[in-house]
Amino acid sequence: MSAADAFFDTNILLYLLSSDAAKADWAEGALAAGGVISVQVLNECSAVARRTLGMTFDEVREVMAPVRAVCRVEPLTGQTHDLGLQVSERYGFSVYDSMIVAAALLAKCPVLYSEDLQDGQVLEKLLTVRNPFRPDSENGFVPVPIPKLAE
């Protein structure tokens, strides 16, 4: 898998703004290698940055610009909505999480980095969920290797 094949959930982008240096470093390195996000991820990240972190619109744009420059942005479509509802119904995920899964499936990504779903779960036989910060009782968390650019 190349970095361009990885789909990133909103929580991964939000770690770019975190005071947790280890998680922020992983997120920065992974996103710098490229990947895929959806418009929903951009919207959710922007909403949290504004509402919770108190960032200005200019600050939000400043954070999102480099992410948009290195990641392919998948649109939200009627097909995303339809598939997202099917995913929610089948797996019992929230509608919002299901729309993220649907976007990753439609983008043909083999991996979805997210803390919100079960690490290692395979969805629709096509998409594996990876929690890049899966808990480890001795070390706090064990970050998964940052995806590499295709050679």
List the helices and strands and how they pair.
Blueprint: E1 6-8, H1 10-14, H2 21-32, E2 35-38, H3 39-51, H4 57-70, E3 71-74, H5 78-91, H6 95-106, E4 111-113, E5 122-123, E6 127-130, E7 135-136, E8 140-141
Parallel strand pairs: 1-4, 2-3, 4-6
Antiparallel strand pairs: 5-6, 7-8
Order of helices and strands: EHHEHHEHHEEEEE
Q: Could you estimate the helical fraction of the residues in percent?
A: 40-55%
The chain-level structural class is alpha/beta
Estimate the mean pLDDT confidence.
88
Number of helices: 6
Number of strands: 8
Q: Strands of the biggest beta sheet: in what spatial order? A: 1-4-6-5
User: Largest sheet, if any?
Assistant: 4 strands, mixed
In percent, how much strand structure appears in the residues? 15-25%
As a whole number of angstroms, the C-alpha radius of gyration is 15 Å
Count the domains: 1
Rounded to the nearest angstrom, the distance between the terminal CA atoms is 11 Å
Q: What sort of overall outline do the alpha carbons produce when their principal axes are compared?
A: globular
CATH superfamily: 5'-nuclease
CATH topology grouping: Rossmann fold
CATH-level-2 architecture:
3-Layer(aba) Sandwich
CATH class: Alpha Beta
Unreliably modeled segments? none
Structure notes:
With 151 residues, the chain is an alpha/beta fold. It has a single domain (3-141), classed as 5'-nuclease (Rossmann fold), CATH 3.40.50.1010. Helix content is 46%, strand content 16%. The protein has a four-stranded mixed β-sheet with strand order 1-4-6-5. A two-stranded parallel sheet has the order 2-3. Helix 3 packs antiparallel against helix 4 (57-70). The protein starts with 5 loop residues before the first strand and ends in a 10-residue tail after the last strand. The mean pLDDT is 88.
